[in-house]
């Protein structure tokens, strides 16, 4: 299949591009490279030394003989997107190309407006581009489990059968997003649902949990192919961040009580989920929602797991509770369904001591690259 | 009270400004005057000859001695909004200042992107402006009943108690908006709800039905104060449009079967609802939702009511069914709650023959100003 991957230079996009290329698909990458600029803006960096996109795709070609065509540009520029779609005529459009950090969106008004306009207008352009140029193309859009918030009832996959006053309907699951970023994803979901209904587009919204790990079989083939790894309080996600904090001798910093429970997924499963969605496309007119995570953990659970593995490795990791910079419940009910991807063949790689140890070993190799001042949260929701 | 009215030159905003001024409040108008530019873009016009905003506020001052201060500028320009908020320090911010036409938002990609970015970013700026400068100010935001779509269960006011797998929660009512414009209002609602929870702002979201009529006690005081009236297929709303079609000898054009049922409200009640929300503000941290309509009618019902009144007035009005340019159900369940505003004192002005006849008489006076080519729908959802 011909697969366009928007955001194909990023943390999820790059390993997905390699995985699908290795599986024999014709993969084309779109990326604005803006994620690398945000490192400069925040005076931060990937813990792992990442090569340029050109170096990456050249090495991939040398190693495998496979070509990854690249287009450097931004989805908010419709004329650019139009050309890419016309030249590519993709079967699948995988859309990772959004600002994906909640703290980044909460820095100030400018970052909130940037996040919502970048994400919402980029996705609107994708919808209009598909309608105009590739109406049969399957859109696979990365959403987030954070769209649902933490309701006091079970979270279903996108839709909920509701009985009310002796009548019944299947309605979009109510959303309670907790940051300007999460809100942008909810806006996207509504826009995509409408485009499927009005124009007959086909889309899969993948509400992904927190991703951990960094390596896949492909990114490990060569140092030039290594994936980025974020440890800072703006872009670093919780489990990876704890492992890096342990490696650099920093306290494991929990926001508030640590009872916040979320869905998690190994990056190895992320790339497989994209493949599953690709080879099992939504039907024309369908807006399909999959919850893309494999296990649920509380933040405190994870800190303790990391502390245990660190201890075995001779590291004395201390768990420290910080005042919560976010507005969120610290103790709450959480139970989310995630059967649809498993029904289509996902065999989850679960989190165990061995997995944690492997990430810790990788992290340890690059720990001197970390800037300590980036580790503690500087962005508040208030 | 000091009340800022954004969009105070528009169809709802202007009569609201006069009504609240007449009630003794200190009213300040913000408007970009862009609605008047859209008339130029669409080669259309208000059926009634409207004066400039300067002429309007001068005449109001001559007639009543009351001052309406005006700021001409756009909510998407934060520096402008900041100055207005600092100089005004309002108790209430009434936000009508959005692109409010579903067909306009569906013209093409550019109009969809304009509508969503204009509405969403304008409202984000209002939220950040209130947070920064007037955190105790009560935001009254105009939403639309169209945010809910046409679910097969009763529509509640903003929230729904949901029982699921033996657990229960009160969650935001699921939204199924049917155009790029309606989607923008849903995005706004989510953004405002978050701002109330995270920052303790106070807001009332008024999900308004289709407004009909044009006169209020204040706009009728002088020809210079007359309200605008839209009859074109882009900005004209259904009941007003039928009355104007009858007056100019055009068929009453129904989209599809005409079973589409919606909530309706007289402009006289709109201005009273804003007053009710103003003098009964939401509590800090509360995101309150009122459904602002007084009666439900199907489109076919309304066409028949107009036809009957027209016949009495010696006009032979013909009902014609057009292919539906929209994507919507033409026969569906519809029952929406609207008790919250009545509980706070709204005494609805219901639709009857006398009301229809009065609008028809006004319309008749200005019918020669209508451009016939603007009456039939030219914008399709497909």
Give an overview in words.
The structure is a homodimer of 382-residue chains. By secondary structure, the first copy, chain A, is an alpha/beta fold. The first copy, chain A, has one domain: Rossmann fold. Chain A contains 12 helices and 14 strands. In chain A, the strands form 4 sheets. In chain A, strands 3-2-1-4-5-8-12 form a 7-stranded parallel sheet, sandwiched between helices. In chain A, strands 9-11-13 form a 3-stranded mixed sheet. In chain A, strands 6-7 form a two-stranded antiparallel ribbon. In chain A, helix 8 packs parallel to helix 10, helix 8 packs across helix 12 and helix 10 crosses helix 12. The longest helix of chain A has 25 residues. The first copy, chain A, is globular and about 55 Å long.
Can you tag this structure with a few keywords?
homodimer, 382 residues, Rossmann fold, seven-stranded parallel β-sheet, 12 helices
């Amino acid at each position: 299949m011909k697969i366009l991957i928007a955001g194909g230079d990023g943390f999820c996009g790059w390993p997905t591009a390699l995985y699908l290329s290795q599986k024999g698909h014709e993969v084309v990458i779109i990326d604005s490279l803006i994620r690398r600029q945000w490192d400069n803006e925040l005076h931060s960096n990937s813990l792992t030394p990442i090569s340029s996109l050109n170096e990456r795709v050249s090495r991939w070609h040398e190693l495998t003989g496979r070509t990854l065509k690249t287009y450097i540009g931004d989805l908010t520029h419709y004329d650019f997107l139009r050309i890419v779609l016309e030249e590519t005529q993709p079967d699948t459009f995988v859309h990772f190309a959004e600002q994906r950090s909640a703290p980044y969106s909460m820095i100030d008004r400018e970052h909130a407006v940037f996040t919502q306009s970048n994400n919402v207008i980029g996705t609107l352009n994708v919808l209009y581009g598909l309608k105009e140029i590739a109406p049969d193309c399957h859109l696979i859009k990365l959403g987030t489990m954070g769209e649902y918030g933490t309701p006091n009832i079970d979270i279903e996959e996108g839709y909920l059968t509701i009985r009310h006053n002796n009548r019944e309907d299947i309605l979009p699951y109510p959303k309670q997003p907790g940051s300007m970023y999460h809100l942008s994803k909810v806006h996207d979901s509504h826009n995509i649902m409408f485009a499927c209904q009005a124009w007959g587009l086909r889309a899969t919204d993948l509400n992904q949990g927190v991703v951990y790990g960094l390596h896949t079989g492909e990114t490990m083939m060569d140092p030039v192919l290594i994936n980025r790894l974020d440890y800072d309080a703006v872009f670093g996600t919780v489990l990876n961040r704890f492992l890096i904090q342990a490696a650099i001798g920093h306290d494991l910093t929990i926001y508030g009580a640590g009872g916040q429970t979320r869905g998690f997924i190994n990056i190895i499963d992320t790339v497989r989920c994209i493949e599953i969605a690709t080879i099992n496309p939504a039907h024309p007119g369908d807006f399909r929602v999959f919850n893309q995570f494999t296990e649920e953990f509380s933040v405190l659970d994870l800190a303790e797991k990391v502390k245990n593995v660190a201890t075995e490795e001779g590291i004395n990791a201390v768990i420290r509770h910080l005042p919560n910079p976010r507005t969120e419940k610290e103790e709450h009910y959480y139970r989310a369904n995630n059967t649809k991807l498993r029904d289509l063949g996902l065999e989850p790689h679960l989190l165990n001591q061995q997995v944690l140890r492997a990430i810790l070993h990788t992290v340890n190799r690059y720990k001197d690259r970390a800037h300590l001042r980036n580790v503690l949260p500087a962005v508040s929701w208030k």
